[in-house]
Amino acid sequence: MLAAPATGRPTQYAAENDPEGGLRLAGASWELWFARGQTEGRRWLATFLDAAPQPTRYRSRALRSAATRATGQHSPLAGAQGVLALSMARLKPPVQLGSSYSGLRALTRYRATVTVDYGVASANIRRQWTFTTEPGAPPLGVPIIWYSTTPPSEPQTEPRRMVAIDWHGKLAGTMYLTAADVRQTADGSSFIAPDGTYLDRNGVSIASSDPNLSIAADDSTSICALAYPGGAAGAGQPGLFTGPIGGPMRRVAMADWLGAPSPLGIFACSVAGDRAVVGDMEDRGITTSIRVIALSTGRVLYQRSYAGLGARISSSRDGRYLAEQTPPYEVGQLTAVTMIRRTADGRVVARH
What is the pTM of this model? Predict the structure, then answer.
């Protein structure tokens, strides 16, 4: 209840001391203003609308009254503006007006028309625009390659648009990804974020793992992971584990070599080739030894040590070939040599 002093202007007092109450009173008194005169009512409404800009239900009612007042005074444009302001005021919290669509077909061009009819031609609003829909997520079971339409070096201030093409170069789908610097699995069915989060083709998180101790398999549905005692993977049991992305993991082999002082790395995980490639690592990504382990039996299929300075190692996706750079960096007059070694028998098949 407003309690204005005996002297002074009550509207000014209310605007300074209780603008919400004044707005409530002004919006509810439209019948009184209609009977006694429009000018006084418009002055009250203008005063309290300025004093109480928050989008409350009382402001909504006052805006409706303002629109009615303007239309009643033969000012259709002002009436239209009042109704538009009323719509905006009802948005809680205040947001920009926009458009959303549903039930549209992919890769189809549409024309949208919005008309607001106030019964007076000069006050009516009509807007029209055209757009073409995106293809959406690619179909399941279709191997694809993803690429971004913006350079990865460009700062990401909004979701990045990703485009998928199939192996024939045809457009297969699109999506908008919030994670930056993602890698994709072999068939493009999921992404791996830098923190080890796995995302599906819609950008939805489906699993997480340690990015330094796990790798996606060549079937794009499984992963291989190394676990230390007390670690999250493998419930603290040391060893090499494998399983479906986001599913239960099984231990492939006990890893007595996990007790080595150097950290571990995993280079390849191949369900098709039934093997994983793991190694002992040192600082700067240098490998001191390598092992190829069968995923089905846990048997060591191949192992090799790199004495001295160690080597930089890369593996083929199926774990059948290793690229070995020795020494791993320039040392004096020594020049690094890269050899391609076959893990079936340890034979060097190429040298550069």
Answer: 0.61
Full residue range of the structural domain in which residue 229 is found:
218-352
Task: Name residue 228's amino acid.
Answer: Y
The strands making up 222-227's β-sheet, listed across from edge to edge, are 214-216, 222-227, 239-244, 250-254
Report whether pLDDT(286) > 70: yes
Q: Are residues 348 and 262 in the same domain?
A: yes
* Residue 313's CATH number: 2.40.10.480
Encoded tokens for 84:
């538009």
C-alpha 72/C-alpha 88 separation (Å) is: 22
* One domain for residues 198 and 283: no
Pairing of strands 275-281, 264-270: antiparallel
User: Do 44 and 173 fall within a single domain?
Assistant: no
Render pLDDT for 25-55 as a digit per residue (tens, 0 to 9): 766 665 666 556 556 667 777 777 777 777 6
- If one counts the domains in the chain, the total is 3
Q: How many CA atoms lie within 13 A of 251 on its CB side?
A: 12
Are 195 and 249 in a shared domain? no
Query: CA-to-CA distance for 262 and 26, rounded, in angstroms?
Result: 77
Q: Which amino acid is at 127?
A: R
Greater confidence (193 vs 40) lies with 193
CA-atom Rg of the chain in angstroms: 34
